[in-house]
């Protein structure tokens, strides 16, 4: 009887003890996650995370797929063929206005001279562009950037001869003398200028905060697979830390990616401000200034919506930012 009583008391005590809830395993995307983009110095961490195996170590199968132009990867993104893209502030807003639901999960960089307008040796300043053939890709960042530059000089697109080519083709056309100026970006910008002995007559350094590179994913993907997004963000910032601790090795990765010399890579990186984890914490804190993504997107949103004949109230750009992956970064 005594043994039965002791056993009963023990069972009662065990049942009264709260059981520690077991953590649910992360819900990861079952297939390959494709992030679309173009070759660009600011995407350094994506190249590093890919080549050093950081994505795989975080439990996700990620391909950083390189396209020739923004048009190509944005078309695949909007068609649902890829899950994420290296997006631009103006293009993000345009895509959302067209009905594509998506969110920003981190800020990659601010262009600080790596986007520019290269011109032939005969053109020494932006004012001399009037009446000239200018190559840029219509409906993309290059057009947005070029139109902004025209506005600063009180010029109209009607005062130049537009030639619709993607950034790589634009640079090539300038080298071949088919156009007088080309809107492009690194590594093509400096290579073309060096080859023809030309000049950069306007760059993103003349328009600070205008061009912001972002990592975005479709809203349904984020909702269904937040653990995968967290893993990608962790791998991304591991790559940033690796770069800071091993710059020579990372420069080697970029020389192979861009088919450039180490000196050219270092020069190209000077034209971008790549944000680390702490800087992302700042960028994803609300402020009206352009150092905050909230203020930055409001400014860019006003410009884009004005061009499209829309009102500010047509889109709340603050809601395009999902800061939980930065705020909860472990």
Explain what the structure shows.
The chain is globular. Helices cover 45% and strands 18% of the residues. It has helices spanning 2-16, 44-51, 54-57, 70-78, 89-97, 141-152, 167-175, 188-196, 219-224, 226-245, 247-258, 262-269, 277-283, 293-307, 324-327; strands spanning 33-37, 62-66, 84-88, 102-111, 115-119, 133-136, 161-164, 181-185, 199-203, 212-218, 272-274. The chain is an alpha/beta fold and 330 residues long. It is built from 15 helices and 11 strands. It has a 6-stranded mixed β-sheet, with helices on both faces. A 5-stranded mixed β-sheet has the order 7-6-8-5-9, sandwiched between helices. α5 (89-97) crosses α14, α7 runs parallel beside α8 and α11 (247-258) packs across α12.
């Amino acid at each position: 009887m005594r043994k039965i009583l002791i056993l009963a008391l023990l069972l009662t005590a065990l049942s009264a003890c709260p059981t520690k809830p077991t953590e649910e395993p992360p819900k990861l995307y079952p297939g390959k996650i494709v992030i679309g983009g173009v070759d660009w110095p600011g995407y350094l961490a994506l190249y590093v995370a890919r080549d050093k195996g950081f994505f795989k170590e975080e439990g996700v199968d990620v391909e950083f797929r390189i396209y020739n132009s923004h048009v190509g990867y944005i078309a695949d993104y909007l068609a649902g063929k890829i899950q994420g893209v290296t997006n631009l502030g103006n293009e993000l807003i345009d895509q959302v206005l067209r009905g594509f639901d998506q969110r920003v999960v981190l800020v990659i960089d601010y262009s600080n001279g790596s986007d520019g307008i290269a011109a032939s040796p005969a053109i020494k300043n932006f004012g001399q562009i009037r009446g000239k053939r200018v190559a840029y890709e219509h409906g993309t960042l290059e057009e947005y950037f070029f139109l902004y530059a025209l506005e600063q000089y009180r010029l109209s697109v009607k005062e130049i001869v537009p030639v619709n080519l993607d950034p790589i083709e634009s640079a090539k056309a300038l080298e071949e003398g088919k156009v007088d100026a080309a809107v492009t970006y690194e590594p093509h910008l400096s290579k073309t200028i060096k080859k023809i002995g030309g000049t950069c007559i306007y760059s993103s350094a003349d328009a600070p905060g205008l061009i912001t590179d972002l990592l975005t994913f479709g809203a349904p993907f984020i909702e269904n697979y937040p653990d995968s997004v967290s893993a990608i963000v962790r791998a991304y910032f591991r790559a940033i830390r690796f770069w800071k601790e091993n710059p020579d090795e990372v420069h080697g990765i970029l020389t192979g990616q861009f088919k450039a010399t180490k000196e050219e890579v270092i020069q190209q990186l000077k034209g971008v401000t790549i944000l680390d984890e702490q800087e992302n914490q700042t960028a994803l804190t609300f402020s009206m200034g352009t150092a905050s993504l909230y203020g930055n997107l409001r400014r860019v949103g006003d410009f884009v919506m004005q061009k499209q004949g829309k009102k500010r109230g047509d889109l709340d750009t603050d809601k395009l930012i999902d800061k939980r992956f930065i705020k909860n970064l472990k």
